[in-house]
Design a protein that fits this description.
Layout lengths: L2 H18 L5 H18 L3 H22 L15 H25 L5 H19 L4 H19 L3 H36 L1
């Protein structure tokens, strides 16, 4: 356990909690967190995780922009559901991304665990995109991915990071509940206007 891992973990908890609460400050705090984790994962040779956190850095900026440019009286993007097409295409792209990144990491680097690392990376990117677009299904995917990350990091004895992902899983359950309630509230307010 390093100081870098401790600081990144603390920022990660704060960032996810703010995301659950739909507070746009989750994005700049998340940007610092993913930058620190990129450094940590580089040191332990989990190169897909380095790549993931580099992309997450760009996604943090994108998410911040998406969440603060929306319409409506209070501004910001409302929580919505992903369409069946979005879900289907997203999952297919994530599977293909897993295979492509796995091949690259297995053949071109000395990555410690190229296949599980690549798979978790690809599906994390999909969950992060859905989060930036405020699709409530992001939390369902995060629950699955974070649970798998707990096992992945525990296997490598990165206990603090495994614990962090356990906490992320609980926060994702909370996020799923809160975002679905927020979506239902938007539909309730919209219904009288439609009639």
């Amino acid at each position: 356990m390093t100081t870098l891992e401790i600081i990144a973990s603390a920022l990660g908890v704060l960032s996810v909690w703010l995301t659950v609460r739909q507070n746009p400050l989750c994005w700049p705090i998340g940007l610092v967190m993913v930058s620190l984790y990129a450094w940590f994962f580089f040191e332990v040779r989990l190169y897909s995780q380095v790549l993931l956190n580099g992309v997450f850095a760009a996604m943090q900026v994108y998410g911040w922009w998406q969440w603060t440019r929306g319409s409506g009286s209070e501004g910001g993007r409302p929580v919505v559901g992903a369409t069946a097409l979005e879900v289907g295409v997203g999952l297919v792209v994530a599977v293909l991304g897993s295979v492509g990144l796995g091949v690259l990491m297995a053949t071109a680097t000395e990555a410690a665990y190229p296949w599980p690392d690549a798979t978790l990376t690809a599906f994390s990117l999909l969950a992060q995109l859905w989060m930036a677009l405020k699709r409530w299904q992001c939390w369902v995917l995060w629950i699955v991915v974070d649970t798998l990350y707990v096992a992945f990091f525990a296997f490598q004895e990165y206990w603090l990071t495994a614990g962090l992902y356990g906490l992320f899983t609980l926060l994702a359950v909370m996020g799923l509940r809160e975002w679905r309630q927020a979506r239902a509230a938007v539909h309730e307010h919209a219904a009288p206007a439609d009639s």
